[in-house]
Fold this sequence. Notes:
By secondary structure, this protein is an alpha/beta fold.
Amino acid sequence: MSRxxxxxxxxxxxxxxxxxxxxxxxxxxGNPVPPSRNSLVPADTSEEVRARRERVGREVAVLPxxxxxxxxxxxxxxxxxxxxxxxxxxxxxxxxxxxxxxxTISCSHEHAAWPGTVSISSVTLHAVVxxxxxxxxxxxxxxxxxxxxxGGNYVxxxxxxxxxxxxxxxxxxxxxxxxxxxRELAGVETSLLxxxxxxxxxTSVLLHxxxxxxxxxxxxxxxxxxxxxxxxxxxxxxxxxxxxxxxxSLGSAEKGxxxxxGLVDSFxxxxxxxxxxxxxxxxxxxxxxx
Length: 290
């Protein structure tokens, strides 16, 4: 069985269903082929990366960062990773980027009261991302986008902030404004404040991309807790017994598809800025380093 006959699954590998596309490779005309929407791991070869690099002026790497934390009784612990990968795959289908496998465990300490949640320290996550950026730079890729699927990964903002003047152009995506634009486009009814965790947005994305992992019960698990000013002090369990804060009952596959489309639209401005031949302010700082 050849590589093109095998697909990655969450439990390993399995024969690939009949399809004309090999995920994230190039078609007959050299155009990008969308990766399989259910795959968490890109299937690029070195030669495919080399061919893509020859077609672009500045190569951009995209790193999905998820988490492994409770998402109530009906969404899996890997929800944030699945969402981050879904966004990154859509970006890779629209732009010739170097799609990386996801970081699957991150900073979920506020969810520690629920079984199954696993976290690493912010220091560790910071180091992992910086090491990845340094490895990419040594291989000739000096531009990195972090696609963050977990709101508690505050340290990613610091990583991007500290990249100014480092020799690596870096961005954090999606920003709140990108989510807001996508929410309006998709007709999501819950505000970003109320849709905090395992709510309308996350349920919708998984109903579109991974409907098999959404268990019955999301239709009757709505719970709102908009005043969460002490969340980082007391954790999620002080605000919700189920682990849900949002309105998952309003989720739909149609909204999930529209949300991803809206985010891809927003990403256009990021790719234009990051691949610009115009010198950015941070580039000058890198040149001044001894």
